Amino acid sequence: MDINRFKHQHVDILSGIAALRKLAHQGISEHAVDIAHELKALSTIITTHLAIEDRILYPSLRRSGNASMALMAQDYQDDMKGIANAFINFARRWSNATQLSRDPEKFRDEANTVLRDVHARMVRENREFYPAIEAL
Q1: Rg (CA), the chain
Q2: Which of 21, 28, 67, 114 could cross-link with 104 by S-S, CB 3.0 to 4.6 Å?
Q3: What dihedral do alpha carbons 15, 35, 39, 97 form, nearest 10°?
């Protein structure tokens, strides 16, 4: 199975997280418009990535005939639901520059949790899941 598209999306997601971190370190209120813009772009990439995984990747792996891969795919999909829901709610709440300016520390606290979880998941997929898929 060719998973290059997923790998490229991971690069884009990790780059988006890095850009958000950089902007937040430079000042949330001062860069609220840029943060909101970057968060919307990241949300688009993540939403697309999740949809493709759910519709194509996970189902094809469950039908692969490899029981351990089928189980791994199901575990990864189940695990992602909580991370995805947290990110989607976070993105909805904070993709508005006015909201970011009103409560920059709350944004920072939530971003530290949600984006850390998304980042950790991407790294885990890159390190464990994708190599397992490629080994099939």
Answers
A1: 16
A2: 28
A3: 180
Angle at 134 between CA 132 and CA 136, to 5 degrees: 75
Q: Using CA atoms, how far apart are residues 131 and 129, in angstroms rounded to an integer?
A: 6
Q: Please, what's the largest Cα pairwise distance for the chain?
A: 53
Residues near 107 by beta carbon (within 8 Å), at least 6 away in sequence: 24, 28, 35, 94, 99, 100
Taking 50 as the pLDDT cut, the residues of the chain under it are: none
Q: Compute the Cα dihedral for 48, 87, 114, 74 and give only its sign.
A: negative
pTM attached to this predicted model: 0.92
CA–CA separation, 96 vs 101, rounded Å? 9
